[in-house]
């Protein structure tokens, strides 16, 4: 009897936590976004600057996610398969973007690439600009989403028996064939899940991007910065409408991840 009461209490607390901290805030965004009706919602979303900010956000999030999928997979493979001095430090540094405030990350890139920094002066001399443009946004997104693919691929590589690779080499297969036929199928769920999480995170990034993008309307203004601008212009309905679009995309991505990885039980 007491055990049943305890289970019911824990279940009620968890459900209450879910409702108060997740469902109510999410629901309030949808309510606010559609508070003026369907037509005003569409007008807010399809406004020239709003729509351009959404398209720019999605485009640059896709680019950064593709970069992350490739680079993250390579780094995960190196961290699992190779032993070298400083490996433990590098492995712990992977999670730095998780713990670092994104505004600090933006300031880091401003300091590193600014016109008065040694690197910034050299880049300017070479005719290369890495601040206040779309390239800067991609750099910022890659940094803040850096751990996702690595941390989802690593456990799958650790579970993969190195003997399978050795057997492939013994039978005369090359490194590319071995990776494509043996390693890649095993880690693909991790690459997919990590990439989708990175994409979802990129859609919502604000701190770093607001400092290094320049926030030029129609050119470098992403959706999160547009939302902030709408709140400052006393247009909460417009901000909520764009938020609904980003939130719906994120929820859709999480649902796809759940469907694709259901029953695999192999992702960290």
From TrEMBL:
Q: Name the UniProt key words of this record, in alphabetical order.
A: Membrane, Sulfate transport, Transmembrane, Transmembrane helix, Transport
According to its UniProt entry, this protein's organism is: Paenibacillus sp. SYP-B3998
- Where does it primarily localize? membrane
- Note the Pfam families from the entry: BPD_transp_1
Subunit details for this protein?
Answer: The complex is composed of two ATP-binding proteins (CysA), two transmembrane proteins (CysT and CysW) and a solute-binding protein (CysP).
Record domain ABC transmembrane type-1: where: 54-257
MF (Gene Ontology): ABC-type sulfate transporter activity
What is the recorded function of this protein according to its Swiss-Prot or TrEMBL entry? Part of the ABC transporter complex CysAWTP (TC 3.A.1.6.1) involved in sulfate/thiosulfate import. Probably responsible for the translocation of the substrate across the membrane. Part of the ABC transporter complex (TC 3.A.1.6.1) involved in sulfate/thiosulfate import.
Q: What is this protein called?
A: Sulfate transport system permease protein CysT
What InterPro entries does its record include? CysT_permease (IPR011865), MetI-like (IPR000515), MetI-like_sf (IPR035906), Sulph_transpt2 (IPR005667)
Hey, which family's this protein in? Belongs to the binding-protein-dependent transport system permease family. CysTW subfamily.
Per the UniProt record, which residue ranges are transmembrane? 12-33, 54-80, 100-123, 130-150, 179-199, 240-260
Provide one Gene Ontology cellular component. plasma membrane
- Protein's membrane topology: Multi-pass membrane protein
